[in-house]
UniProtKB/TrEMBL annotation:
GO cellular component, one term: membrane
SUPFAM superfamilies recorded: ARM repeat
Organism the protein comes from: Crotophaga sulcirostris
Keyword annotations: Membrane, Transmembrane, Transmembrane helix
Protein's recorded name: ARMD3 protein
Amino acid sequence: MAQTEKKGGLLRKSSASKKPWKEKVVLMYDEIFTTEDPIKCNPRFWEELFLMKVNLEYLEGKLEALDGEELMKIKDNINCLFQHCIQALGEEHPIRVVNALQTLCALIRGVHQKNKSTSGFDIINMLVGFDKAELCMKNLMESLDSLLCAEGSESLKSLCLKLLLCLVTVTDNISQNTILEYVMINSIFEAILQILSSPLSRREHGYDAVVLLALLVNYRKYESVNPYIVKLSIVDDEATLNGMGLVIAQALSEYNRQYKDKEEEHQSGFFSALTNMVGSMFIADADEKISVQTNEAILLALYEAVHLNRNFITVLAQSHPEMGLMTTPTSPIPTTPVTPLGTTPPSSDVISSAELPLDADVQTSNLLITFLKYSSIVMQDTKDEHRLHSGKLCLIILTCIAEDQYANAFLHDDNMNFRVNLHRMPMRHRKKAADKNLPCRPLVCAVLDLMVEFIVTHMMKEFPMDLYVRCIQIVHKLLCYQKKCRVRLHYTWRELWSALINLLKFLMSNETVLLAKHNIFTLALMVVNLFNMFITYGDTFLPTPSSYDELYYEIIRMHQNFDNLYSMVLRLSTNAGQWKEPASKVTHALVNIRAIINHFNPKIESYAAVNHISQLSEDQVLEVVRSNYDTLTLKLQDGLDQYERYSEQHKEAAFFKELVRSISINVRKNLAFNTLSQELLLKEFSTIS
C-alpha cells in the first residue's frame, strides 16, 4: 500500500505515476488568491473554510510568494478573509474560532513579509482596507478581549495571546507598527491584568501576558501618551501585582535552575576531572561551556514594573518558597532551541510549585533574591552581546531599586534576613565559597556582594566601563540612604574597600589602553568619592567605631595606590590636553585621602622606630590611628551624599529601543501557532455540534 506524506499543503502518493492532489483547505486558499470572489462558486465558502484545519505553512508561503503588485490585485479577497476571520471569532463553535485565530496569524505574518519589499504598500490597507480599518480592528480587539476574559477554553486564550504577540511583533521596531494604534485605542490592559490575578490563568498564560504587556508599554513611549504606561503606573491591586511578580520570579527561577543543573553537570563531567588533575589552568575555557540563554523579555517586564509602578516595589519583598527547592519535576523539562534571546516560558512544574503554601522547613525567597541570583549569573560573562545587554538591564533595575525609599527600607530591614547564594565566577586565586556557610543578612548585603563581585571579576582588556559606572552608582545610592537614615549595616566593608582600591590600581596599570577608549577619570572620581563618603560620614553609618578605624587602616596600608593615582592625575591635570579638567577633579577629590596618609604615615614610622619594630601588626597600626585622630585636619567636601536620579528618556532611550527590537524579533521567531494539534482541539471541544 502506497504511503502518504504531507509537504507544503500537498498530499502526495509515493507512486510517481499518480498525479498529486491537494487538501481541500489548500484548494480553498487557492480560490482566495484569484481575483474572483470565492462565494460566486460556493455561497457557503466562508462557513466551510473555518471548519477546515488551517495550513499555516501553505497560507504564509502563498502570501510571501506574491510580489506587491500581485498582492494588490487580490486585496479585496484578502480584506474579505480578514473580515470573515473577525466574524468567526464571535461564533459559538470553538473549532471555527481556533481556525480563525490561526488564519489571522498567518495573514498578518504573510502580509508583513511583503511589507518589507520595495512595493511599500500599507499593511493595514492590505489586511482590512483603510475605509473599514477602524471598525474591523475595534471588533477584532473586542473579540480578543472577550475571549481572554471569558471562562472558556484555555487553548483559545493561548491562541488569542499568540495572535496579539504576532500583531505587536510584526515589525522589528514596534514603534513603526501602525497596527498598534488600534491596540492602544481598544485597550486589552484589563484582560491582561485579569490573567495575572487568577492563579489558573496565570499558570497557563502568565508568561505570554507579561511579555505582551512589556512590549505594549514600549510602543512610542517617548513620542506620545501610551495608555498602557499610564495604566500600569497606577495599578494597585495586590493580587494582580503579586501575580505579575510570580510570573517574573518563575521565569527567572527557571533560568537559575537550568544554569545550576548545567553547572553541576559540568563539574561532575570528564573535563572537570581533567581540570582537577592539571590544576586550574583551563578554568576559563571550562566556564564558557556553562551557557543558558538569557531572557531579556521577562527582564524588561520586571524593569517596567519597577520603574513605572511604585506599588510593585512591595512585590519584590513578597515571601514565597524557594522555587528551586520545592519540587523536582517528575518528567524531564524539554530543552528550548538555542536563540539569541531566550523567551521560552518556564515549565508548568516550576509555576505550580511556586504557589504552594510556605513550609517552615523550606528556605523562603522573594522576587528580589531570585533576581539577584539571575543577575549574578548573567553578569559573569559580559563578552557576549546579549549577556552584556542583560547585565546592563540588571544594573538599571538595581539603580531604580536603590533610589526608592521603600525599597531601601526593606533592603536594610534587620528583621528581614535571607541567605542569598549568588553565583561567583570561577577564578584561579580563590576557592569556591561553600553555600552552607552563608549567613542570613539583610538583603542590601546581597546587593553589595553582587557589586563587589562584579568589580573584582571584570578588570579585563575589553573593559565594561558603562557597567562599572552603574555599579559604583548603585553602591553610592545605598550609602546615601544609610547616611540619611543612620543605618548601621553590619557588612564586611573591607571587601568593598579592597575591591575599589584594586579597581583604581587596574585603571592606573592600564592607563594608555583604557584612555584610548574611555574617560577613566569619571570612574576614578566616583571611586575616590566613595572613600570620601566613608571618611566624611562613616561615623554615622559604619557599624562600630572599629570599622571606621579599619577604613583608615586600609587607606594607609594601600597608600601606594593612592599616591600613584595622585601622581597620574597631577601629571595629566598640569598638561594642556583633553584630560586636564577631568584629571584635576580627581586631584581635588584626593585631598582628604592624602591628608590621612600624610598625617598617619610619619606617626606610624615614628612608633616603629621608638619601639624598635621593623614591621607593625594591624593592631599596632590601629593603635597609632586611634591615638592620633585629634590632630588630623580634614576638609569638608560638599555634595558627597547627592546624586542625579535615574532618567530613562534622556539617557537610556537608544538602549531600550535596541533592546525592544531584539526582543520583538525573537518573540516573533519563537511564536508557534500550530502547537495545538487538531486532535487535541477536537478532544477539548468534543461538544461541538
